[in-house]
Amino acid sequence: MSNTTKKLTLIRHAKSCWDDGELDDKQRPLTRRGEKDAAHIGKWLKDQKWRPDTMWSSNALRALMTTKIIASTAKLSLSSLEKKKKLYLAEASELLGIINNLDDRIDHLALVGHNPGLLDLVNALTGEMIETLPTCAVYIIELPCRTWQDVTTGCGTTQAKITPKKLR
After folding, report:
1. Which candidate, 62, 80, 61, places its Cα nearest to that of 72?
2. Range 74-103 average pLDDT
3. Among 76, 4, 49, CA closest to 140
4. Contact call for residues 20 and 121 (beta carbons, < 8 A)
5. What is the pLDDT of residue 3?
6. What is the pLDDT of residue 78?
7. Which one of 1, 45, 123, 152 is separated from 129 by 20 to 30 angstroms, measured CA to CA?
8. Contact indicator for 38, 69 with CB cutoff of 8 Å
9. pLDDT at residue 77, rounded to an integer
């Protein structure tokens, strides 16, 4: 099943609610706009015939809600979703470590997580110098690698990118 290229979709969680100051950071839900943005992104991904082999989400509520809305709107099988504690606020180097240890039977991984780790990872993999990764932004990166272990800084090419604002 393994190809000569791997594909990585990086998705920042949608807009989350800060209304309840007592709420633990991991428990913050999406705002209504965040839910709508995630649905718009899911529809856009479905229209792109986007089909990751598996989708991993940070265990923060805002990331899980984003993941479920996108997966449902994009008509993905929810059996391919996994909640990963180590994605919560992970730095780029930690994310790269997770990627380098992936099973090579996976050709396309989607990660839903947080800034600044995702922003730094996009820049590290693609050599781009984007300054911001807005909420619910998506970067699909093509990696010319046979194995995930070969994925390293500068090896990726941005195949597609979208933000909810561009879909409004």
Report:
1. 80
2. 93
3. 49
4. no
5. 66
6. 66
7. 45
8. yes
9. 79
Nearest to 130 by CA among 10, 33, 44, 45: 10
Phi, psi of 123 (to 5 degrees): -65, -40
pLDDT in tens, 119-136: 999 999 999 999 999 999
Name which of 128, 162, 147, 158 is nearest 11 in CA terms. 162
User: What's residue 80's pLDDT?
Assistant: 75
What is the DSSP annotation of 119-148? HHHHHHHH----S---TT-EEEEEE--SSG
Dihedral sign, CA of 83, 85, 88, 93?
A: negative
Residues contacting 110, CB < 8 A, separation 6+ = 8, 9, 10, 11, 52, 54, 55, 56
Pair 168, 47: CB distance under 8 Å: no
